[in-house]
Write a structure and sequence with these properties.
The complex is a heterotrimer of chains A (443), B (393) and C (409). Chain B is an alpha+beta fold and 393 residues long. Chain B has helices at residues 3-14, 18-24, 40-60, 76-93, 200-217, 224-240, 269-290, 309-331, 340-356, 367-385, and strands spanning 65-67, 97-101, 104-107, 110-119, 124-134, 139-140, 149-153, 158-159, 166-168, 175-181, 184-189, 294-297, 300-303. In chain C, the strands form three sheets. A five-stranded mixed beta barrel of chain C has the order 1-2-3-5-4. Chain C is flat and about 110 Å long. Classes of the chains: A mainly alpha (443), B alpha+beta (393), C alpha+beta (409).
């Protein structure tokens, strides 16, 4: 009974903490999970071991639901983001942001139930597939990279008087994508081979580069925007039919599973592949399937850690949270269903919070300029990165920011930035990482 | 077929080569494991023909006429006249003519949609200005201009094989090729597509360098690299033959584009998904069969031997596909749903037909139009996925 | 909204419109710097234009600078005992003696466990065995070698700290293992787990279910000591590559030289072959006259243990200030006042002072667990342990909990 209450209390606590932190635009929950881990480690006698997994997974579940709010409402892209805005943001720009947020939340809720529905698959097929595929992971990751690069089509109109003008006009984003991919890959090789960040904060080695690549460019983009957030309509109901929900679940599960299983592959990349595989269209479908995919990617990747079978004695976990929690958490047989229950409770709680917090945030944005929120967020990023990883961490973050700004302002895929992990992981898995390191003189 | 389908088909085909899979495997029970990337050649060459077209070929296809209408003052009659002029020049001079259309962009997220229609019965061309649409191709109702229709009678005897009207809205516009063929004037949609790039001969030529690279790098079995590369390229061309457009299969020996079998459309979501799923199933089985993995049982290491092929494919391919098709049958027709833009265009031309009473709507959606819609959709999808935020952590 | 505000807003909108429209053809150009329609240079918003340039130049210059910063960075050397959870994934250098090696040829994996005096860590080379063997050849790190290695730490709750080995260039064998040559008579219980080179005479051989139980004595008559048992399991026996060695070691009367690890079982010293597959560790000096032992031989237990328990050998009392590097490996007794107690992941570090001189006492985790004593600053302590040289600094390492005693006045 005490264990049950402990798990429940920390699930609620994790959900609330996660929800509040997720409201900060561009802040990723993994940025603060490191802090949380240090605090927990310093006060081990106060917080029971049994609470570790429920607390942290609830943080992530709440993040998956609530980060829709800053992503949808906080910020109004201008012409510099013309072809890179999400359908959710488009809905927000036409006053239907609340509906977009609720649709994403609904998608996440569908994703939660899909995780439960897929439990037999997780235990009876997934470990076998993993065992077959894992010796081939290096070339599978290479396939993902090739597809990412080959499937980025020109976004320019291909206009011009000469072949060269047309070519340059259309290829602007492809060049930017290739440049981003190359630079991010090089950055990844440097930080994974010989990180300039102090060994004292080794567990946060990757964090500054991610903040730089993804968080700060978004902040800069919003700070430079001239647009205003239009008035939003608070819809009483959302228009979603069973067929749309079904197709979204199907597309979202494929994208989410690809991202949750393959190392260094994110929900964005998984979404591209799933979108091309299912060939389904529509903004609403995209928004809902994004919600499904997000929960499976973030939460599923951690849940897989608890798939303990004879073929997977150490679980199948992947992702940032696994790495952060590895020193303090060992999955045990039977934990899966406890964690699944925690996810369900936290997910339902987060969905309810999403409905109310969306309204509060919209009211808040009427009195506060969103650019001020982004300035505060930017300062917070510097404090987190500087506080945890020091001067060199800040330097890495700044370099990452420059790289991350290229796709944002040249309209190429931001997922090209994931080369920061894809290239080093692929090379290391193939066993060529040290050859490249040696070539670069980083031994 | 979609790019991913070609890509996966190339890899699936490569996975049948036992030495390639043995080289690709890293450990397990494979004695020749070399962590090779050879299997990726199947995917790379599988997607290559369309990459050559859409990333290169289209920009080198120089138009003789450009129809680039001022969005702030759209004049459909002027556009129709320009198109008519191009057709007449082709008819009169016998010279091949290409006409490039451009989208009309009004603002960052607003585009003026228009439709191009060729009528072979009356030898007329039509331009119809539609509503303004968002980048997601959602129309803003009531934004169509007052003067919507441009019409031009041409001298040529149009042989319209394209069928449906072509819709132009976001990001880029189509190119049409006109060719005099005896008594008729042939209209080619995207004349730069599926020509030189979709040739088995070119595939063989492009595959050849992989042999020399493998040889130079000292890889074992260098002859295997060009075979896998060529087969990846070839399966793309072969899969394209199931659609309508076909390809110039033996360019440069014969440059004409042959027609496809027309079994299904390139954008058919169900066919694409079923082929993708089949490819994944095939790849997993081939990996399992050729490099059965090791696992621990207590202190011993055991080999996870593959199931018999018939059992595996029955359980993991036949049953799931049957379930999928049953679901599809109850929820949708196996025919792919028409894109919003295409439906919108069809309605529009329908509406116009009522007014003018001259246009016969051809029900069959042509392969080429689907391709354009697909290309635009791919770009649109990318647009949507552009902001995948910080989910990489 | 006042009239002036409305006007200001309108002006802003017009200004924005101007910035996104081509001044020549009036078309929408967005963030393009050249109009795609008429190729006119567009007066794009300065902020966007500037940001685009900064992004590209900053990224390229930044990566170059970061590359040189990383290239010239000295990887920090740390004590294994000081590893904390926040070091997870950090690139660090550790040095110590290889105390265990495990080779999995089939899986192309290997692992080495090293001990630096403050703790132990497992170094894992996954899918790298062939590559490393090719690089090191005969010099592949072996048990007993003193190595310095750079790698990324991997800390899990279940297995503690380990390190991933990547490039063989990141491991340096500082000192190859050259076991000390000793006589059986010189072996002490305090030296358990140490490795020695011994020359012995095979005194008795018995085959049991899983291996051989052998009794060896000193070779020279003058040094005749009590026999010591040498147990060789079949798995280890089969790893001996030289058939002659196999024959000699199972033949009574043979004189052999081999490298062995000193162990103990219920207070009795015993030997265990070290790296049986290493041919350099075996030498047959004289083949015994008889036939090698075969399993069918009946064993008559006529041997009675005449074990000389030397564990009660008294530690030498020493003053802290008098300790020097010459005392390394000596079993000493020191007394001092606790100046500092630092619990760490793999043990507790205690600084003991005596007459202004101080020395570090490293109490391993398993001993801390058994200790009934609570260590506190100011407490007077008597420590019995071996003197170690840890990276140039002397330290005392107790071998059991009884080696740490509180001194009451």
């Amino acid at each position: 009974m005490i264990s049950f209450l402990t798990v429940l209390i920390y699930t609620v606590l994790g959900s609330l903490t996660g929800a509040l932190l997720s409201l900060i635009p561009s802040l990723h929950i993994y940025n603060v999970a490191g802090f949380a881990l240090l605090i927990w480690h310093a006060s081990q006698s106060l917080i029971p071991q049994i609470a570790v997994a429920p607390f942290f997974i609830s943080l992530v579940v709440a993040f998956s639901f609530i980060n829709t709010i800053p992503m949808t409402f906080v910020g109004a892209p201008d012409e510099s983001a013309t072809v890179t805005i999400l359908p959710g943001t488009k809905m927000m720009m036409s006053g239907a942001g609340y509906e977009a947020a609720v649709l994403t939340g609904t998608g996440s809720l569908i994703g939660l139930f899909m995780l439960i529905a897929m439990t037999p698959f997780f235990f009876y097929l997934f470990p076998t597939i993993h065992l077959i595929v894992s010796p081939h992971m290096h070339w599978i990751l290479m396939l993902v990279m090739i597809y990412m690069l080959m499937s980025e089509w020109p976004k320019g109109c291909g206009m011009g008087k000469t072949v060269l003008q047309r070519f340059l006009n259309a290829w602007g984003n492809i060049f930017a994508g290739l440049l981003t991919f190359g630079l991010a890959g090089l950055l990844g090789l440097i930080i994974t081979s010989k990180s300039p960040i102090s060994h004292e904060m080794g567990f946060q080695n990757i964090m500054p580069v991610f903040v730089g690549l993804f968080a700060i460019p978004s902040i800069i983009q919003n700070l430079l925007s001239n647009e205003k957030i239009p008035d939003q309509h608070i819809a009483e109901s959302i228009n979603i039919d069973a067929r749309t929900a079904g197709i979204s679940a199907y597309q979202g599960v494929i994208g989410g599973m690809i991202a949750a299983y393959l190392p260094a592959v994110t929900a964005g990349i998984g979404g591209i592949i799933a979108g091309h595989a299912t060939a389904q269209r529509g903004d609403k479908l995209f928004i809902i399937s994004g919600g499904v995919s997000k929960i499976i990617y973030y939460v599923g990747a951690f849940l897989f850690l608890f798939i303990i079978t004879p073929l997977s004695p150490n679980g199948l976990g992947k992702g940032g949270l696994n790495i952060i929690l590895k020193p303090v958490l060992t999955p045990e047989k039977g934990d899966f269903f406890v964690i699944l229950s925690v996810i369900l409770v936290s997910g339902c709680l987060s969905f309810l919070m999403l409905l109310h917090m969306s309204k509060w945030v919209l009211a808040f944005l009427k009195v506060v300029d969103y650019r001020q929120i982004y300035i505060a967020s930017l300062i917070l990023m510097f404090v987190i990165v500087g506080g945890l990883t020091g001067f060199m961490g800040l330097m890495v973050m700044i370099v990452g920011t420059f790289v991350g700004m290229i796709p944002v302002f040249f309209h190429s895929r931001r997922s090209n930035c994931m080369a920061v992990l894809l290239i080093p992981i692929c090379l290391n898995m193939a066993g060529y990482g040290d050859v490249v390191m040696e070539f670069l003189g980083l031994l | 077929m979609k790019g991913l389908t070609h890509f996966m088909s190339g890899v699936a085909l490569a996975s049948f080569f036992t030495p390639a899979v043995l080289m690709a495997g890293k450990t397990g029970s494979s004695a020749t494991a070399a962590a090779s990337f050879i299997l990726t050649l199947g995917g790379l060459y599988g997607i290559m023909p369309d990459t050559l077209d859409f990333k290169m070929g289209q920009f080198f296809s120089e138009p003789d006429f450009e129809v680039d209408c001022d969005p702030s003052n759209p004049d459909p009659q002027k556009m129709a006249d320009q198109l008519g002029e191009a057709i007449d020049e082709c008819w009169e001079t016998g010279k091949d003519i290409k006409v490039q259309f451009y989208p009309m962009r009004l603002a960052s997220n607003v585009w003026q949609q228009y439709v191009i229609k060729f009528d072979g019965n009356t030898d007329e061309v039509f331009i119809v200005i539609n509503e303004a649409v968002s980048t997601s191709q959602i129309p803003f109702m009531g934004t169509e201009p007052e003067k919507r229709v441009g019409r031009c009678k041409v001298k040529a005897n149009l042989l319209e094989t394209h069928g449906r009207p072509s819709v132009v809205d976001i990001l880029s516009g189509p190119q049409f090729g006109f060719k005099k063929d005896g008594e008729h004037l042939l209209i080619e949609f995207l004349p730069w597509h599926r020509t030189w790039s979709h040739s088995y001969v070119l595939g063989a030529l492009l595959a050849l360098p992989t042999y020399f690279i493998a040889l130079l790098m000292g890889f074992s079995l260098p002859w295997l690299y060009p075979i896998i590369a060529f087969l990846g390229f070839a399966i793309h061309l072969t899969e394209d033959l199931t659609g309508h457009m076909g390809g110039s299969l033996i360019w440069p020996i014969k440059k004409e584009r042959c027609n496809g079998a027309g079994w299904f459309r390139a954008s058919n979501p169900h066919m694409n998904f079923l082929i993708d799923y089949t490819c994944v199933t095939v790849i997993i089985y081939n990996l399992w069969r050729i490099t059965p993995p090791l696992y621990r049982v207590g202190k011993n290491t055991e080999i996870l031997t593959a199931l018999p092929w018939y059992l595996y494919y029955f359980v993991f391919l036949a049953i799931p596909i049957t379930i999928y098709l049953l679901i599809v049958k109850f929820s949708d027709k196996l025919e792919d749903s028409k894109s919003f833009a295409a439906v919108n265009a069809e309605n529009l031309v329908d509406e116009f037909k009522k007014i003018e009473g001259t246009i016969d709507i051809i029900e069959e959606l042509s392969e080429a139009d689907t391709l354009l819609a697909e290309e635009l959709e791919i770009r649109n999808k990318e647009t949507k996925f552009g902001m995948d935020q910080i989910d990489g952590m | 909204m006042t009239e002036s505000e409305v006007k200001q807003n309108e002006q802003e909108e017009v200004k924005n419109d101007i910035e996104v429209l081509c001044p020549s053809c009036g078309r929408f150009v967005g963030a393009y710097e050249i109009c795609p329609h008429c190729q006119t240079q567009v007066n794009t918003r300065v902020s966007i234009k500037l940001v685009k340039r900064i992004a590209v130049i900053g990224a390229i210059v930044g990566i170059i600078l970061l590359y040189f910063a990383a290239k010239n960075r000295e990887v920090p050397m740390i004590n294994i005992g000081e590893i904390q959870i926040n070091h997870n994934m950090a690139l660090v250098k550790v040095s110590g003696r290889v105390i265990r090696e495990s080779i999995q040829d089939k899986k192309d994996n290997f692992s080495l466990t090293i001990d630096d005096g403050t703790g132990k860590i497992k170094l894992g080379g996954y899918n790298k065995l062939k590559k490393w063997k090719k690089h090191f050849g005969e010099k592949f790190p072996k048990e007993g070698d003193f190595i310095e290695v750079t790698g990324n730490l991997n800390i899990t709750e279940q297995f503690g700290a380990s390190m991933f080995l990547s490039s063989p260039h990141r491991l340096v064998v500082k000192k190859s293992f050259n076991p000390k040559r000793v006589k059986l008579n010189d072996l002490r219980i305090e030296d358990v787990n140490s490795t020695y080179r011994v020359t012995v005479k095979i005194d008795y051989v018995k085959k049991f279910g899983m291996g051989y139980s052998i009794r060896v004595t000193d070779n020279s008559v003058s040094d005749q000591s009590a026999p010591i048992s040498l147990t060789i399991f079949d798995t280890a026996f089969n790893r001996i590559k030289n058939e002659n060695v196999k024959k000699a070691i199972t033949t009574k009367g043979s004189v052999c030289e081999f490298v062995a690890i000193l162990g103990e079982y219920k207070g009795t010293l015993q030997l265990k072959l070290k790296s049986p597959d290493n041919p350099n560790y075996f030498k047959v000096i004289e083949m015994g006259a008889g036939d090698p032992y075969v399993a069918s031989t009946t064993y008559k237990n006529t041997y009675s243990t005449t074990y000389v328990n030397k564990s009660n050998q008294k530690a030498t009392p020493e003053q802290i200030k008098n300790l020097s590097k010459d005392d390394v490996k000596k079993y000493v007794e020191i007394t001092g006042i606790i100046d500092e107690v630092t619990p760490q992941e793999w043990g507790t570090r205690v600084i003991l002072t005596q007459d202004g001189s101080s020395i570090m006492v490293w109490i391993k985790k398993f001993i801390v667990g058994k200790m009934k004593l609570n260590l506190a600053k100011g407490q007077k302590l008597k420590v019995l342990g071996n003197i170690n040289d840890f990276k140039g600094t002397l330290q005392v390492v107790p071998i059991s909990e009884t080696g740490i005693q509180e001194v009451t006045e």
